[in-house]
From TrEMBL:
Subcellular location per the Swiss-Prot or TrEMBL entry: Cytoplasm
Entry protein name: Alpha-catulin
Pfam families: Vinculin
Matches recorded under InterPro entries: Alpha-catenin/vinculin-like_sf, Alpha_catenin, CTNNAL1, Vinculin/catenin
Regions that span the bilayer: none
Length: 674
């Protein structure tokens, strides 16, 4: 992974040196063209020239390092770096004090009189630097595509496994590949300048993150209950969604166009109103740039889109009448505008008449009032739904009915959840119309698709549990999908707040909703980890999550469920799950919670030790050895967490070791069944 992230890190270094060179070159080219300079001016020019040379040298060194790592582009990158270095040397020579000639009359030095040479060198530098960046970008794109291909191959293997042991082995590889892909695409998302693409990338990466855990539990459920049709349907839906998300990432990275993107770019009412007002206001500049028919057609297309509001079964009669009334008012004002416009054209007026100016103002006001009403309806409905669904009653009822094996109750509550899903899907569509920015539109579409997909997945997971009510893995699977539903509701609340901010003018620029996921935690300031630390933590966390789930699966097979070793193993698995959450949300608050959880382990040590004595000598030795390691590491973690300043650093140093030890304990505990 380190070698794969090399180019992404080096690309950041490449970009870092460009502003220095750019500012310095601008200074040199824009200097006053006087051949004779004072010593102070001469020294300044010399410093600027040297700064360019040093920056170019560092830039070229990074480019050459990238070329060494990527043989297929080594020649092209080497040539571009050579040209950049040559241009940097030329600029340094043109500003070199040592090459300056003193004037015989006043002793002042003549330097940098070759303005044409400076411009030529600057152009060569710009061209070569651009080429280096383009080549580096091609390498990054290739790495993302290669990483995606590896994930797809492993995904195919996962889909076809028939034994649990084989699944565990392949899923571990899959987890490593997904961590690599997440880091590469995360860096790419941060580099994107187009907010629309950034929002699409955030949506696709969110799907992949959530689906990874769904894939784990759905696949395990299907392996445990291979003849269960609802389990198979549940698993197939997860695999399909992951493949779609992977494809979307590649479309964004390669700037490919697909039929899916055409759907995303469907015009909203907000954009329709904006374009309509722009057309109307342009008449002030030119009465003959548009035809009356085209303006009237724009309004009719806009009114047609409001049918998503007026045709909805969930729109109240009063709201429907208000929207229809404002649409009619907009039509009337537009007709008056067209009439005044035609009169102005008939007399060959060069600018709007007074009547036409009044009509322009009235028309713009009426469509603005329409937008305000639509915003109120969409946001009001979303707020009401979030309040109602915050109690999660259908989800609780489905879990309870599934655990009881009550298929009739599951069917009944499934209908309730389906109705809620349809309400949420429609509300997301209405929010998309009034979102106010294209990135927010994309996020609304993502929310709509998520509710549309997860709703049926929850139902199929509940049906599986109802058919196998004693299955812990089926119960865990349903829990994972319910958590995804609840998480999307939280994201929708954040989205709603962002739409309100844009509407009220409090925020002019879209802030990626993906960056706000940490707001679901009661945050302290997040701890910054470098790429290698993040990778190590994420890989261990994913492996730990898988193994802790294995413990739950294995202890199901024990005849005595109240056996001490079973209960203690489950306790360890619970601890491991908390540490998995820690790797996903590494804030100081979460670190504190993780430390507190593990402070309890030494207290459990005596009871677990007594349980271990019931094992045979060989098994006892293995478990006791790993347990002693865990106790020692927990004590180190306690000591490191005592001081707030040192505690954070110490925690992050000890956690990877602690994770590894917990992995070993989970493996041992899972293997000690009868």
């Amino acid at each position: 992974f380190h070698s794969d992230s090399f180019v992404a890190e080096k690309s950041d270094s490449l970009v870092r040196y460009i502003p220095v060179s750019g500012r310095c070159i601008t200074t040199l080219i824009n200097h006053k063209d006087k051949p004779k300079k004072s010593e102070r001016t001469l020294a300044a020019i010399h410093r600027v020239g040297q700064a360019v040379s040093v920056a170019v040298g560092r830039f070229v060194a990074v480019g050459e390092a990238i070329a060494t790592e990527n043989q297929e582009l080594k020649d092209e990158m080497g040539q571009a770096c050579f040209e950049a270095r040559r241009a940097g040397d030329a600029i340094a020579q043109l500003t070199d004090v040592g090459s300056a000639v003193p004037s015989q009359s006043d002793g002042r030095v003549t330097v940098f009189s070759d303005r044409t040479g400076m411009v030529k060198a600057a152009r060569l530098l710009l061209s070569s630097v651009t080429k280096v960046l383009v080549l580096a970008d091609r390498i990054v794109i290739k790495q993302i595509i290669t990483s995606r291909n590896k994930v797809l191959v492993t995904l195919d293997h996962l889909e076809r496994v028939s034994t649990f042991q084989e699944f565990v082995q392949i899923f571990s590889q899959f987890g490593n590949e997904m961590v690599e892909f997440a880091h590469l695409t995360g860096d790419r998302q941060n580099d994107l300048k187009d907010e629309k693409k950034k929002a699409r990338m955030a949506a696709a990466r969110a799907v992949l993150e959530k689906c990874t855990m769904m894939l784990l539990t759905a696949s395990k459920t299907c392996l445990r209950h291979p003849d269960c049709e609802s389990a198979r349907i549940n698993k197939d839906a997860v695999f399909h969604r992951m493949r779609c998300a992977l494809e979307q990432v590649i479309e964004i990275v390669t700037e490919a166009r697909s039929c899916g993107e055409n759907k995303i770019l469907t015009a909203s009412i907000y954009n329709g109103i904006k374009d309509f007002k722009s057309s109307v206001e342009c008449l002030r500049e030119n009465l003959y740039s548009l035809s009356p028919q085209s303006v009237a057609g724009q309004l009719e297309a806009l009114v047609e889109r409001t049918e998503d509001f007026t045709d909805s079964a969930y729109t109240s009669h009063e709201q429907r009448q208000a929207i229809l009334g404002l649409c009619q008012l907009a039509r009337q004002d537009t007709q008056q505008l067209v009439h005044a416009w035609a009169e102005a054209q008939s007399v060959h007026a060069k600018e709007p008449t007074e009547d036409m100016e009044v009509s322009i103002l009235k028309t713009c006001q009426s469509v603005s009032d329409l937008r305000r009403e639509l915003h109120k309806v969409a946001v009001g409905r979303a707020s009401d739904l979030l309040k109602v669904h915050g109690e999660q009653l259908p989800l609780r009822a489905l879990k309870a009915a599934g655990a009881e094996g009550n298929l009739e109750a599951v069917a009944e509550y499934s209908r309730t959840l389906t109705e809620q899903k349809e309400q949420l899907v429609e509300t997301c569509r209405l929010l998309c119309h009034v979102s106010g920015t294209e990135p927010l539109e994309i996020t609304c579409i993502h929310a709509e698709e998520t509710f549309h997909v997860i709703g049926p997945q929850i139902i199929s997971a509940a049906q599986t549990l109802a058919l196998h009510p004693s299955s812990k893995i089926a119960k865990e699977n349903l829990e994972v999908f319910c958590e995804a539903w609840e998480s999307q509701l939280c994201d929708m609340a954040l989205l709603l707040r962002e739409i309100n901010d844009v509407f009220e003018g409090r925020r002019g620029k879209f802030t990626s909703w993906m960056d706000k996921h940490s707001a679901n935690l009661k945050t302290a300031k997040a701890v910054k980890l470098d790429a290698e630390e993040q990778t190590s933590m994420a890989k261990l966390g994913l492996e730990l999550r898988l193994l802790s789930s294995d413990v739950d699966t294995e202890v199901e097979k024990w005849e005595e469920q109240e056996h001490d070793i079973v209960r203690q193993s489950q306790s360890l698995a619970s601890m491991a799950y908390n540490m998995y959450l820690f790797t996903r949300y590494p804030t100081t608050t979460t670190a504190h919670i993780a430390v507190i959880n593990h402070l309890c382990f030494p207290k459990r040590h005596p009871s677990l030790s007594l349980s271990v004595f019931q094992l045979v000598d060989e098994e006892k030795s293995v478990v006791m050895t790993e347990m002693e390691k865990l106790v020692a590491l927990c004590q180190q973690l306690q000591m490191g967490a005592k001081t707030p300043v040192q505690g954070k650093t110490a925690t992050f140093q000890k956690v990877p070791i602690l994770l590894l030890c917990l992995v070993l304990v989970c493996v041992c505990a899972a293997s000690q069944r009868k």
